[in-house]
Amino acid sequence: MIVAAVGLATTAAAIRLGWRLAKPTTAAPVMPTTWQIGGASMAPTLLGHHVELTCGACGVRWPVHWQANLRPRGPVTCWNCGARVPIGQSLPQAGTAVTLVSRQLDPRPPLTGELVVIAPPLPTDTNRSGPGEISRFIGAGTPGLGAGTRWAVKRVVATAGQQLTHHAGVLLADGRPIAERLAQAAADHPDRVDRPLDILVHDDRHRPGAMSSRWRPLAGSAPPIAVDADGFRLRAQQQDGNWVPSAWLAYHHLAVHDGLRPDVIRDDFPSNATEVRALQPVDRLSLRLRVNAAAGGTVQVLFRLAGQPRATIRTWPAGSCRLDFDSASGEAWSGDVSDFPQPDSAPTPIAIRILTGEGKISELVIRRPLQYRIEAADAVKWTWPLRLSEGQFYVLGDNVPLSIDSRQFGPIGSERIVGRIQPT
Ligand SMILES: [Zn+2]
After folding, report:
1. Beta-strand (E) ranges in 277-391?
2. Are 123 and 409 spatial neighbours (Cβ–Cβ below 8 Å)?
3. Which of 6, 91, 274, 396 has the lowest tally of Cβ within 10 angstroms?
4. For position 343, what pLDDT does the model report?
5. How many whole angstroms separate alpha carbon 406 and alpha carbon 125?
6. Cα(203) to centroid of ligand 1, in Å?
7. Tens of pLDDT along 242-256?
8. Among candidate residues 112, 155, 146, 152, the one with its CA nearest the CA of residue 131
9. What structural domains does the chain harbor?
10. How big is the chain by its Cα radius of gyration, in Å?
11. Measured in angstroms, how far is the CA atom of residue 77 from the centroid of ligand 1?
12. CB 39 within 8 A of CB 135
């Protein structure tokens, strides 16, 4: 009975959205089938052909696209430390394997945040990499369908009735950045929507020299910070029954593509090793760290990006634990700005201090969420706001600088949707 009721509700919703009105232009095999990603447009969530490079200086390992037109011809700059990494004799690896669930099998309309497989026509643009098609059929299934099939995988970011605009290069759906809508969709529908992967900005577990961390204590009169080969020991002090916080431990960002000069953090995509473009400052970061301590205590993390600084205070238990921080979820920083001086020589977007107790902080990893942007050259092609009518979907690739998607070819009709990619 419950199943029938759900089925009826889904059908009603589908008709309201015009989902059943348009038959697909191409049919997928009815049963779920396994495919391989061929292009770069959904990275880092789904990779096309790529090689895994290892930096000889810091040891970090990461994938670089390896299609004919995206293959690096010379050394690649390490996103983590700026060293030049030879491409060597690496053999390309196949793209991510994904499971396609056809519309015949699951006729529910796609949700915001879901990955869908769309059928041609896809426009070509010789200046870009091309859509991240699912290019190869692996495993048992319908013979013949794989060869020559150039379907593309894209992420649904807006559906019928929604209004798209852009502000300062960032795409908005009903007034909110698309990245925020996708995070909300993943929280609302965890069974159907995966959150896009965050992109690595810096990983202190991989240093070019044992003591050459970008995290450094800021000078001050507070209790000093002891620097280890794999972390930092911070200590708050008790004075007349009150805690005096430790000194600040600050991250100093360097531009790996610009001679390692001090810079703000920008929207680099480490996998896009051959792409040349102007990088944009990021407006949101996350930080993961480990605390080892004999007793519980309190740590404060301060993010300074565009706008007002934001701070988060967290407690840790005795022992070892990992803590996650997000620049968007802290409290507006109301402390004395002189507590957190900005050195002239280096932008310091993140700083940490211990408010009570003492502990060792290590394994500092900074990431940034994907921000879905539109280039001015693409924005002028459309009349904004762009309202999606019945049966229309706005679809984007997660590899924002390279993907060809609704920013170029506009919203797509439901007849172009072959099926969806099963979430992992
Ligand atoms: Zn490196």
Report:
1. 286-293, 297-303, 310-316, 319-326, 331-332, 350-356, 358-368, 386-387
2. yes
3. 91
4. 54
5. 13
6. 10
7. 999 998 999 999 999
8. 152
9. 2-48+94-197+374-421 (2.10.109.10), 202-368 (2.60.120)
10. 24
11. 8
12. yes
